[in-house]
Fold each of these.
Amino acid sequence: MSKMKSVKFEHERLSREESVIRGKSFYELMKRRRSIRHFSPEKFDRSLLELAVRTAGTAPSGANKQPWKFIIVESPELKKEIRIAAEKEEKESYEQRMPQSWLDDLAPLGTDWHKEFLEIAPYLIVVFKIDYLKTDSEIKKHYYVNESVGLASGLLLASLQNMGLVTLTHTPSPMNFLRKILNRPANEKPFLLIPVGFPAENTEVPDIKKKEFNEICEII
C-alpha cells in the first residue's frame, strides 16, 4: 500500500491568556446565534457566502472523501420553486405525518407549514451529501457521510455567524424535491436547506434557554 506524501504541520502555540480570550470571544459570538424565520430581502456581497463555504470545506471527513456539495441559490425563480415544493411537503407533515407529541413540542416555537422566508432571504444554501462517486468502471463508496457533512455544516453556520449574517437550518421532509429542482445527480442527497441574510427589522425570536454546562458535559 502506498503512503500519502506528508507535509510539515504548521501550528501556532498560544499563551493561556490568548487562548482564554479567543475562547470566550467565540463563545459569546456563538451564544448569540439564533434560528431566524424573518429575513430582510436586502442583498449582500455573495463573496461572504463563498468564504463560508470554503471554511466548511476544511471540515474533517471519513477517509478525507469530503462528501459534500454546497449549492448557493440566488435566483428568485428557483427560490420560489423551492418554497412551493417545501410548503407542499411541510403542509402534509404538519397535517398528517407528525405525531401529536412532535406538534406539541413545536407549538411554543410558533412554527407552521408556511415558509415565506425561502423567497424573502436573499440567498439559500442547499447542502447535499454525496454517498458515493460513480465512474465508468466502478462505484467508490464514501464513509461516515452524515457525520462528515454534519461537521461541515456546523463550520458553515459558525462562519456565517462570524460574518454578521443570520441563518435558519431548515429540513423539510422529505427533501428529494431539492435534487430535482436543482438538477443534482443521483448520488447527491439533500441534507440541509439554509436561508442566509440579515434579520428583518424588529425581528423577535422565542425566549428559549440552552442547557447548562453540567447538563451537557461530565468530567471524569
Amino acid sequence: MTEPKFTKGPWAWFGSAGGCPDVYLATKHSGRKYVMSFRRWGMRGAQPQFRSDNVLVDASELLKFEVGDKSIVGIEAARKDTSVYRYQVRGIDSPDARLIAAAPELYEALQRLVNVSAEISPEAQKADVIANARAALAKARGETP
C-alpha cells in the first residue's frame, strides 16, 4: 500500500481576525504546517467562504474564538462582546469547514477499519477501531471540541 501524500493530521483552523486578518488550516503538530491558506488578491483581503442556508458566507461571519464566550460566532459579534479581547481563531462554525479539518482523522480511522476487517483480530482491537472511526465522524459533524 502506498503512503498517502496529504499532510498528516490532525488539522484545525487557526489565525487572527484582528488587525491584519489571516485564517488558515494547519496541523496541530510539527509547528503548525500549513494545509490551506489564502493570498490577498487585489484591493480586498482573501478569505474562504462556506455554504450556510444555501448561500455562501464569508468565514469572518463564522469564526469561533479561543478567548472569551465560546458561543460567540463571527468577527462582528466578537467585537461587540467584551469577553473576546483577542481574535485568535479556534474554529469555523461550518459543517464543511469541520469536515475539511477532520479529513485526516477520517482517513486514518477508515484505513484502520479496512485493515482490521481484512484480518481476524481480537474483539478489543475491533472495538478500538470502531471507536476511532466514530470519533472521527463525530468531529466531522462538529460534535467534539
Amino acid sequence: MKLDVIKLDGKKAGSVDLGEDIFGLDPRADILHRVVRWQRNKAQQGTHKVKTRSETSYSTKKIYRQKGTGGARHGDRNAPIFRKGGIYKGPTPRSHAHDLPKKFRKLGLRHALSAKVKEGNLVVLDAATAEGKTGALAKQIAGLGWKRALIIDGAELDAGFARAAANIDGLDVLPSKGANVYDILRRDTLVITKAGLEALEARLK
C-alpha cells in the first residue's frame, strides 16, 4: 500500500510503502474496545475513600445500657446504622488495572493504525521540525486543515517542534514509544513522520 509523503508546507516529498500486516487489517471494534478499556482502567487513580466506623470522629462510649430500655441494643454512635456513622463496605483506595497480553496490545495498535488508513485520516509527514515558534507552526497546521491531530515522531522528538506545538489546541505530539490506541482513536487525523513509521514497524513486527 503506497501513501504520499508531505512536508509541513503541504508540498509532496515522495511516497512510502505501508505494510499490509500493520496498516491493511480490517479494523475490529471489539479488539479496540478491549485495549482502550485496559488503558483507561490502568490510568484510573482509584483514590476514592470513605470512613469506616473506626475512623469517624465520635465518642466510643456505649450510648445507653444494654438491657431494660425496650429498644435495640447498641454500642457507640460510629455504627453504620446511625447518621454520620461509619460506612459499611464503602470504596477504598485500589488499582483498577487488569492484565491484557502484550500480543493483544500490539494487535490493538495495528487495528487502530489500520482504522485510520481505512478512514483516509492517516498522513505521512517527511519530518516534524520547527524553529520553536508557535504562531508559525499554527499557520502551517491550519493550512493543512488539521483541527484535531496526533503527530507521532521517531524515538526522539525535535525540541523546537515540541515547544512550538505545546500551546496549539487540538494538537498532540508523541514519540513512537508513546503511540497508543486511545490517543490514536480520540484524534481525527493521525500524522506519522517517516522516522515514526520505521520505529512503529520495528515495534510491531
Amino acid sequence: MTEGEDMVQRKAAFLARTERYLSLGFDRFAAAEFVVKTGGRLSGPALDIGTGKGLTAMALARRGLEVISVDTDADEQALASFLAAEAGLRDHVRFACGDASVLSSPDEYFGCAAMADVLHHLQDPAPVLKETARVLKPSGILILADFSAEGFELVAGVHREEGWGHPISGVTMESAAAFLSGRGFEVTVRCSGHKHDVMVLAKKQEKGV
C-alpha cells in the first residue's frame, strides 16, 4: 500500500467515525468551532496543544490565525495535515511533532492557546500547563475544553463498538484551572455545548505593565 492509499483509508475511517458520532447527535466539526468561538476575540499566533485530527487547529485557522499545533503522534499529525490541506487551511497551520511540556517557542510568544480533549489523557498536566503559561503573552487567552459527562459516555460507547477502550486519567478542567490560578490566570468564561464543557482563562498582566 502506498502512502497516499494509506492516507485515503485513514481518512475514510475518520469520516466513518464522524458519521457515527453524527448519528448519535455529536458533530465533531461543530464542537471544535464552538470551543474556539467561546474564546471570544483571539489574537495570534495560536497554539493548539494535542493535534488529534486537527479539528481545533483548523477552527483556529478559520478565524484568520496562524497556528502551531503540537502533538507527540506523528501519524495523527499526518492525517491532520492531510485534512487541513483538503480544507484549504494547510498554509495556516504548522504541525510540530513534539512534547508540549518542552516547547521550543520563546517566552510570551502566543496570543492564545487551546487544549481541547487533552486533559483526560494526561496523568500529570503540570508540565504542559507550565509551558503553556510560559509561552502565552500577557492578556493571552487559554481555552480549555473536554467532553461533558454525556460526551464521555457517547465517545466511550463508540470506542467500545470498535473494540477499543477510552481511558480517562481523572484530570479535570477545575484542577487545571486551580493550578493555573497560581500562575497568573483567571477564569473569564465557563459554558457547555456540543457535548463539551469549556473554560476560558486569561493571563493577567503584571502590575505596572
